[in-house]
Design a protein that fits this description.
alpha+beta; Cytochrome Bc1 Complex, Chain A, domain 1; 16 helices
Length: 420
């Protein structure tokens, strides 16, 4: 089970030993992501993630950092989301102290050299170009712009070319001072967690000063009719998202939403996969997903579809959304989807990194450690009535949102399908 300790400066330490494990995952996760940015600093959380790998006082160059982790055969990476950011190393258990030292060194002693910042701007702009040029990735940005507009949840995590180019050393210093505070930070280890990990964390992070920081701003939106946003480009395939408002991270209906999402678009036996791909042959890929945030969420379907049959594809997906709200699911479908969710979770949590991601994400977003059995039991307790109740709550005709990247310009065409 997870063990949680809070240091005097507010930093939290979370561990979970795994019997028989030979490796360990060490991670630092922070309640700091692109949602905490301003329009002028949009993209700085992601940019900072890059810069943490560029050199510290102790390890002056990117090569010095990477060579140290490569030298122990470690897996080394980071990620930036809208509400949290994480840095991790997974390695053989005997090298745990070194892994923690590297992570602490990066986060607390990075140089943010001006020449490196200028050089990395080109790298990030090319990363941005890659996403823009990849319709399957680009649809994420178009959809969230449609959903949230000009506010942090509607902005791209990577930022814009203008904000990337405008960043300087002081931009990073100010951002880290505001958001990389001990109370927003969780340090964790899972796997072969032997020895006094807590003492090691105290030695690396215990000296940090407790200081106040800001908070996220509630999302502001009003929707009274279906909405459509197209990004027109010449292509042989159209990538689309069709979705509705969902529920927040801590909602008591979270497990019902998980099962509902699995029914709609989880796996190769889900309704969307069977109907859109297997029966009608409209798409190579199609899936459903629910993304939750502190105060809102969205349930959506995404697919890459034949441009010649786009109307049929959109109408079919809309019909599947309405069906799950209108008709109770069968008991055998409920059982299959519960087993699907629980099986996927168990597979994820057999890996130290997956287990640690599960624990730290809950701690960062909810300020509590959730045990695995709590989630498994929550999924198991979902009823047919729960699913239909939640579906009727979120799947409403005036709450449909449709975005597309492909060779189309007429928004009214798709508005008519949504309102048919």
């Amino acid at each position: 089970m997870f063990t949680k300790t809070v240091l005097p400066n507010g930093l939290r330490v979370v561990t979970h030993p795994m019997t028989g494990a030979k490796s360990v995952a060490v991670m630092v996760m922070l309640a700091a992501g692109s949602r905490y940015e301003s329009r002028e600093t949009n993209g700085i959380a992601h940019f900072a993630e890059h810069m943490f790998f560029k050199g510290t006082e102790k390890r002056p160059t990117a090569k010095d950092i990477s060579a140290e982790v490569d030298g122990i055969g470690g897996e080394f990476n980071a990620f930036t989301g809208k509400e949290y950011t994480g840095y991790y190393i997974k390695c053989a258990a005997e090298h745990r102290a070194l892994a923690l030292d590297v992570l602490a060194d990066q986060l607390l002693s990075s140089r943010f050299d001006a020449e490196e910042i200028e050089r990395e701007k080109g790298v990030i702009i090319e990363e941005l170009n890659m996403y823009v040029d990849t319709p399957r990735d680009r649809i994420d940005s178009v959809y969230e712009t449609l959903l949230f507009g000009d506010q942090p949840l509607g902005w791209d995590i990577i930022g814009t070319k203008e904000t990337i180019r405008a960043a300087n050393r002081q931009t990073f210093v100010d951002y880290l001072h505001d958001w990389y505070t001990p109370r927003r930070m969780v340090v964790g280890a899972a796997g072969a967690v032997d020895g006094d990990f807590l003492a090691e964390v105290e030695a690396q992070f215990g000296h940090l000063d407790d200081r106040p920081s800001g908070d996220w701003s509630p999302v502001d939106f009003v929707q009274t009719e279906p909405r459509v946003l197209l990004e027109t480009r010449d292509s042989d395939q159209a990538h689309l998202r069709l979705g509705v408002r969902g529920i927040q991270t801590t909602s008591p209906d979270r497990y019902a939403m998980q099962v509902l999402t699995a029914v709609l678009g989880g796996g190769m036996s889900s309704r969307l996969f069977i109907e859109v791909r297997e029966r009608l042959g409209l798409a190579y890929y199609v899936f459903g997903y629910h993304q939750s945030y502190h105060d809102t969420g969205t349930l959506f379907a995404q697919a890459g579809v034949d441009t010649e049959r786009i109307d049929q594809a959109v109408a079919t997906i809309v019909a599947q959304f309405r069906k799950i709200a209108d008709e109770p699911i069968a008991d055998d479908e409920l059982r299959r989807c519960k087993n699907y969710l629980k099986g996927r979770m168990v597979l994820q949590l057999e890996d130290p990194k997956g287990l640690l991601m599960f624990g730290l994400r809950r701690e960062v977003l909810e300020d509590r450690v959730a045990e695995i059995d709590e989630v498994l039991d929550g999924v198991e307790a979902v009823t047919v009535e729960d699913i239909q109740r939640v579906a009727r709550q979120v799947v409403v005709d005036d709450g449909l949102n449709f975005s597309l990247v492909g060779p189309f310009e007429d928004e009214q065409r798709f508005f008519d399908i949504l309102t048919a």
